[in-house]
Predict the structure.
Amino acid sequence: MRRLYTLGIIFLLVTAGCLGGAEKGEEMATGTQPTSGMTGQKGKAIYDANCRMCHGPDGKGVQGTGAADLTASTLSKAQIISQVTDGGEQMPSFKDALSGEEIEEVAEYVMTLR
């Protein structure tokens, strides 16, 4: 069951990266800069446990998984949170697997991979 959740988060993050965000020449939404410190460490641990399998240790995606390259994502923090919470085409929702705080922490960590 945990593996399914892990795959789900990975897919969600991959899908989030594919959805795009600000077009070239447009600014990203305000409040999208990642934070640092303890939250970043917690977010990395959550990422490693749930996302790394498909997105890889650096967020570039593991070949053959179809995972999005998170380093190229332009999604805002709110958009990433939405993807992780609600899921996508191939990625399941993580609203029952992770707390709101955990989802926010992993979103902040994902933004540091850019």
